[in-house]
Amino acid sequence: MIKHIFRISFGVILIILGVVGIFLPIMPGLLLILLGSAVIVERNPKVLFNEIAQKVKRKMRTKEDEKAC
Fold it and tell me: Whole-model pTM?
């Protein structure tokens, strides 16, 4: 239970730092946001990001098909 709370807290801190990093040129904002979200998710981050990429590709294909008609 404590490990779960620590993981969630650490992920939220990374995401907050990432949001701050978007506005500050010194910090890599997007990288910190991605790391924070990877820490928070229960599943393997690679699997999650691959699923998101597949959904985006499917949506792009359907939009292209709609334009072709």
Answer: 0.60
